[in-house]
Amino acid sequence: MNRANLNTDLKNSAEFLKRAISNEKRIAVISHLDADGITSASIMFNLLKGLGANFQLRLIKQAEKKIIKTISEINADLFIFLDMGSGQKEILSQYIEKDILILDHHHPEGNATGKTIEINIDNYGFNGSTESSASTLCYLFSKFAGSDFGEIQALVGALGDQQEMVGLNKEVLDIAIKKNIITIHKDLNLFGRQTKPVFQALCYSDLDLPKTTWEVQQIFQDIIDIDEVKDKTYAELPIEIHKKMISKIIEYKLSCGKNNFDNFLTDFYFFNEAIDGSEMKSLREFAVVLNSCGRQKETAIGILFAENPKKYYNQVSTIYKIYKQNLAKLINWFDSKESNAFIENKGVLTIIKPNNVLKPDVVGVVSSIYFKLKNSEIIIGAAYDEELELLKISCRSKKQKINNTLKTAAKFVGGSGGGHDLAGGAYIAQDKFEDFCKVFEEEIKKEAKP
Q1: Residue 314 in contact with residue 320, Cβ under 8 Å?
Q2: 355 and 295, same structural domain?
Q3: pLDDT-based confidence at residue 31 (cuts at 50, 70, 90)
Q4: Residues 219, 351: one domain?
């Protein structure tokens, strides 16, 4: 790892940005609309605002040709791409003739040329899938530009991308702890511990428990008063009940022959200033709330909320509530017989075929949820994007790396794809889905061979 070179390049690019601002250059910031992209945008928004820059900010779903062509028409002298760009440098240079700055953590392709400055964490020996999100990189960049903002935002972005607190993420975590911004607590790996009724949260967990609240309640009926706790969140229950429940879950899993306790307990990161019981108390839930803003096309409020959570919490909470209701309807559809015709299981690979129910803005989220619920090894979800006139592919993998597989399969059918080791996506022509899946399946079989 070459941290010294990273620091040098961050410092030089930060100075480049400040010179552009002092010369009254117009700046366009383009970022992705997921949690990492939104938090990255909020850090840059805060920095540019503080430096008195003339800028505009836009969140997009993907750096596809059609979108980049539109972006190129923005009246700007400097284009800053966050959480994207490293895999699309050829497209960017084709359509944008002005200066370009890229801050990204996805696998880079090719070299930056001409007026493009690229800082990608992979180029310095760090793993962009695990050790640094785009928001972490933006935070480090902003510090070199004179900012002291963004620890919470960087950590939320990293957790939103399913990263752990290692590498550069750990550096930011240590700063946040030193500033007393967050508290860490190891506990049962339970999403919704702050916001969902305890048995409902357990149903949707990855703990190998039954998927109905009644069945889950039966597991604990001899150690706790079900009626007394059923409407409370896990966080509201006393530590002694936590201990009893954890012991009972272990006992239940062993009685069912389920001996896998990987990630049974996990570290939770709590925002000290947030109200107990709010969605922004746990940083992982904070990330999901930001994702909901992106998926519901409420990107402006998402950026404002990421920058100032307390001020915009009530507005975002309403957006998140609607988002959860829509997701619940989709998950119920997947449990119905109607969905059977669109789901194909091919060994380790599960394929969710294009249909009229699954939309492109949520195909990634739904694929992830279905992936966990069905304990799939690898899943592909697909939905037609009318704006791009392309089929959006979302892919998740439990162990096998899929980044290069996605690139190969997408390229074979004339599309583009990639991402991280265990999560990624692609855009392809609508009529190429079967060919894409065939090549993808062949490639994962090749890579699985010893």
Answers
A1: no
A2: no
A3: very high
A4: no
Instruction: State how many domains the chain has.
Output: 3
Structural domain range at position 213: 185-314
Q: What CATH number does residue 14 fall under?
A: 3.90.1640.30
Tell me the pLDDT tens digit for each residue of 105-121. Answer: 998 987 777 899 999 99
Q: Are 437 and 384 in a shared domain?
A: yes
Residues 396-444 have pLDDT tens digits of: 998 899 989 999 999 999 999 888 889 999 999 999 999 999 999 999 8
**Does residue 272 share a domain with residue 201?**
yes
Q: Are residues 118 and 193 part of one domain? A: no
Same domain, yes or no: 66 and 7 = yes
Q: What is the pLDDT of residues 175-184, one digit of tens each?
A: 999 999 999 9
Domain-ending residue, one of 100, 129, 150 = 150
What is the chain's mean pLDDT, rounded? 92
The amino acid at residue 34 is D
Contact (Cβ atoms closer than 8 angstroms) between residue 394 and residue 425:
yes
**Does 384 lie in the same domain as 285?**
no
* The last residue of a domain, from among 106, 123, 150: 150
Average pLDDT over residues 220-240: 90
The reply to whether 171 falls in a domain is: no
